[in-house]
Specification:
The chain is α+β, with helices and mostly antiparallel strands and about 180 residues long. Helices cover about 30% and strands about 25% of the residues. The protein has a six-stranded antiparallel β-sheet, covered by helices on one side. The radius of gyration is 16 Å and the shape is globular. The C terminus is likely disordered.
Length: about 180
């Protein structure tokens, strides 16, 4: 069972996904990193995938709390879903403005978050939320190199599955 954030809530589809509702505050970034690390351990994700997912999640959450100019009391939602061959992370907030990658100067102390997401994720995008309030920024990371079975495929096939994960789906990527 995932940890419930103080002052927030968590929900879980036992095996495949978890969602956290976090206050729009800087300390929520560290809390989400800890929650993700715990969930990744329970899913037995590799250290490489976990480290990358944790880093990219913190970039998206930092953007959400810094730039989400919305009324106090609004939450940031983070969702983590384990799919057969990848992990998908989503961060939603109530701000309608879709983020765009910026080109940071060498001496800038910020402005590189989405460029890092684009460089490290297999796919990512920013989209208006279906409910019409705010946006969701998401990324996906493959769990295994192409050609190796995923943990769920191996379990279903008695560890003898031979599949190809195929090329990653790419959404919006900066040029």
């Amino acid at each position: 069972m995932p940890m419930t954030p103080p002052g927030g809530s968590a929900s879980l589809n036992q095996e495949r996904e978890v969602e956290w509702r976090l206050s729009r505050h800087a300390r929520s970034v560290g809390l989400a990193r800890a929650l993700l690390r715990e969930q990744a351990r329970s899913w037995k994700l590799s250290d490489e995938v976990t480290d990358t997912a944790e880093f990219l999640l913190s970039e998206l959450l930092t953007n959400a709390y810094r730039h989400g100019a919305v009324p106090k009391g609004r939450e940031i939602w983070a969702r983590c879903a384990l799919e057969d061959d990848r992990i998908r992370m989503e961060v939603s907030d109530a701000n309608l403005t879709l983020p765009e990658p910026q080109e940071a100067a060498p001496d800038d102390t910020s402005g590189r978050g989405l460029a890092l997401v684009a460089a490290l994720a297999d796919a990512w995008a920013a989209e208006p939320r279906v409910c019409g309030i705010g946006k969701t920024v998401w990324f996906e990371l493959r769990l295994r190199p192409d050609g190796e079975p995923s943990p769920t495929e191996s379990a279903r096939a008695g560890s003898t599955a031979a599949t190809s994960a195929g090329p990653p789906r790419h959404a919006t990527r900066p040029s």
